[in-house]
Design goal:
Elements (H helix, E strand, L loop, with lengths): L15 E2 L1 H8 L3 H9 L6 E3 L2 E5 H10 L6
Antiparallel strand pairs: 1-3, 2-3
Helix pairs in contact: 1-2
């Protein structure tokens, strides 16, 4: 665990994925992931000109779309 500057509680590191890696994790194409980002349906991180997605945000997106069986 790492501690952010000025913070007193440890923060668990999050894994950041590229759009290509996120698409592979979701089992979709990159175009779908880019659409999710442009529609602000999934949170993302901007690092300069690079866009990254947290694996935990993708897992939450998957869980939100889960339809329970009867």
């Amino acid at each position: 665990m790492t501690v952010t500057r000025g913070a007193r509680t440890p923060v668990a590191p999050t894994e950041l994925l590229t759009i290509e890696q996120a698409a592979a994790h979701l089992g979709t194409g990159e175009r779908f992931v880019r659409r999710l980002i442009s529609q602000r349906r999934i949170p993302f991180v901007k690092l300069g000109r690079h866009v990254r997605l947290e694996r935990s945000a993708l897992d939450e997106f998957i869980d939100d779309g889960r339809i329970p069986s009867r």
